[in-house]
């Protein structure tokens, strides 16, 4: 994968999967939270947290407001979530954040270097399903793209 060295693995999961032993990860995987404002109990579920890789507050607020509006219109939770993502262009806005915010860029570069050096990482956030769109998946995909480009 990267420059003739053995790279570590990269995965993403959600905190409830860890808490209920539903995450299929190698035992040596470092659990990296990517939550901007973690609840106190979140720290017990992960090895570290990188708040700079959480979505910006204004983007989260816009998505939550749109999701509530869609729920009021009768959409189910998952449908409202996905419709809200489309309305606020969440994926592109989040990609822009991780590529332009200095703290996010530094955190992204650090995780990339750790994977390239052989460390296995799992990105963790609150979103409690694999069905909904989630920033941690966008982040995983971006890290994979960066590593493959080397």
Automatic annotation (TrEMBL):
InterPro entries: DUF488-N3a
Domain DUF488 intervals: 27-146
Highest taxon in the source lineage: Archaea
Protein name in the entry: DUF488 domain-containing protein
Taxonomic source organism: Natronobacterium lacisalsi AJ5
């Amino acid at each position: 994968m990267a420059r003739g060295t053995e790279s570590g693995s990269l995965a993403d999961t959600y905190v409830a999967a860890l808490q209920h032993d539903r995450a299929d990860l190698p035992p040596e995987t470092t659990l990296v939270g990517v939550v901007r404002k973690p609840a106190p109990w979140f720290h017990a579920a992960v090895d570290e947290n990188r708040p700079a890789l959480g979505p910006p507050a204004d983007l989260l607020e816009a998505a939550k407001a749109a999701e509530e509006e869609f729920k009021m219109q009768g959409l189910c939770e998952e449908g409202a979530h996905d419709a809200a993502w489309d309305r606020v262009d969440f994926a592109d806005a989040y990609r822009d954040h991780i590529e332009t915010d200095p703290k996010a860029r530094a955190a992204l570069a650090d995780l990339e270097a750790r994977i390239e050096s052989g460390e296995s990482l799992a990105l963790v956030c609150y979103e409690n399903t694999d069905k909904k769109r989630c920033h941690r998946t966008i982040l995983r995909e971006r890290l994979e793209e960066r590593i493959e480009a080397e």
